[in-house]
């Protein structure tokens, strides 16, 4: 039996669904749900616990920050969501006090944990978590574009009528409007997209790629417009990252890590293909981007840095 303790901060749609996905894997022996709404956390813990006959043994409780002590992994989904018309800077300035309060406490009670930030804007909040925790950068990770990359593969799989798992592709940069689809690195059966399109008798020109870029970037907006939130796919992304970390998979995932000169970018958290294992991010991979993609990545980094500069961040 695995003896991993996972604490999830925030028991809303993403936090509770992530707990369900993780429980279904048998990854954790203990799960602590923490939420400002204690009754909500208690209800979610009860509901999850009642499935005990169908999963591997796991102790699920609703607790306080103190109850997260000695966690192996802490997943942060807490935060204040956006209202119509609010910018990323508006959302960030509302969430900075939340993170300034909880992150040092989490670090104090679990000094050897890995911190996985899922709350949005994820890249900036991961940077803030890194600063407030005092942890080494490899143990402070954002969910990055793991979900966006899956969306990219899913859309391509429908276009070509092939299994998404057989498509090798990455979305990098900000988890947001400035993210970049790395078409130059996308491979299907060892072929580039353009080469594969020839075998599929499909026109995959600039218009085709722009439409897919738009669909990936606006997927969350479309879902939110219809049901008010996203939770299932992001929970599966959280589960995958958690497995890579705690099972020491050495998986390559587009999590958000602290760049230190990669692609000429430093002191900002962004999504890049990273080798992920028990100690967090082992390495950010120096992927060969096209000139256009590299310029887009630098623009994305500048955008994130400007938002941090304009925020009320006190570090």
Describe what you observe in this structure:
The protein folds into two domains: 5-142, Rossmann fold (3-Layer(aba) Sandwich), CATH 3.40.50; 146-310, L-2-Hydroxyisocaproate Dehydrogenase, Chain A, domain 2. The chain starts with a strand and ends in a 5-residue tail after the last helix. It contains nine helices and 16 strands. The strands form five sheets. Strands 3-2-1-4-5-6 form a six-stranded parallel β-sheet, with helices on both faces. The protein has a three-stranded antiparallel β-sheet with strand order 7-10-11, covered by helices on one side. The chain has helices at residues 13-25, 38-49, 88-109, 122-133, 146-160, 193-199, 206-227, 232-246, 291-310, and strands at 5-9, 30-34, 59-62, 73-76, 114-117, 140-142, 167-168, 171-172, 180-181, 187-188, 191-192, 251-253, 256-260, 266-271, 274-277, 280-284. The longest helix is centred in the N-terminal third of the chain and has 22 residues, at 88-109. It is of the alpha/beta class. Helix 1 (13-25) packs across helix 8 (232-246), helix 3 (88-109) packs parallel to helix 4 and helix 5 crosses helix 7. The radius of gyration is 19 Å and the shape is globular. Strand 5 (114-117), helix 4 (122-133) and strand 6 form a beta-alpha-beta unit. The model has no long low-confidence stretch (mean pLDDT 94). The chain is 44% helix and 18% strand.
């Amino acid at each position: 039996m695995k003896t991993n303790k996972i604490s999830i901060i925030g028991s809303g749609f993403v936090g509770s669904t992530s707990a369900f996905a993780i429980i279904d894997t048998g990854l954790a022996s203990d799960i602590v749900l923490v939420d400002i709404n204690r009754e909500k956390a208690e209800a979610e813990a009860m509901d999850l616990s009642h499935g005990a006959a169908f999963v591997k043994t796991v102790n699920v409780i609703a607790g306080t920050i103190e109850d997260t002590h000695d966690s192996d992994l802490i997943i942060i989904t807490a935060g204040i969501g956006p209202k119509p018309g609010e910018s990323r800077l508006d959302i960030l300035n509302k969430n900075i006090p939340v993170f300034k309060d909880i992150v040092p406490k989490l670090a104090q009670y679990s000094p050897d944990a890995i911190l996985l930030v899922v709350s949005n804007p994820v890249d900036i909040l991961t940077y803030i978590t890194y600063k407030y925790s005092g942890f080494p950068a490899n143990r402070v990770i954002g969910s990055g574009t793991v979900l966006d990359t899956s969306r990219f593969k899913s859309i391509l799989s429908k276009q070509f009528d092939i299994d998404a798992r057989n498509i090798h592709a990455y979305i990098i940069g900000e988890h947001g409007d400035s993210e970049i689809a790395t078409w130059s690195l996308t491979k299907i059966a060892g072929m580039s997209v353009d080469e594969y399109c020839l075998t599929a008798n499909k026109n995959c020109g600039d218009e085709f790629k722009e439409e897919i870029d738009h669909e990936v970037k606006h997927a969350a907006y479309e879902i939110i417009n219809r049901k008010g939130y996203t939770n299932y796919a992001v929970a599966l992304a959280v589960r995958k990252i958690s497995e890579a970390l705690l099972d020491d998979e050495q998986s390559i995932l587009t999590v958000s890590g602290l760049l230190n000169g990669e692609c000429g970018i430093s002191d900002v958290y962004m999504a890049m293909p990273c080798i992920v294992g028990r100690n967090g991010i082992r390495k950010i991979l120096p992927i060969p981007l096209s000139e256009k993609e590299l310029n887009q990545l630098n623009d994305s980094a500048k955008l994130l840095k400007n938002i941090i500069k304009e925020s009320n961040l006190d570090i």
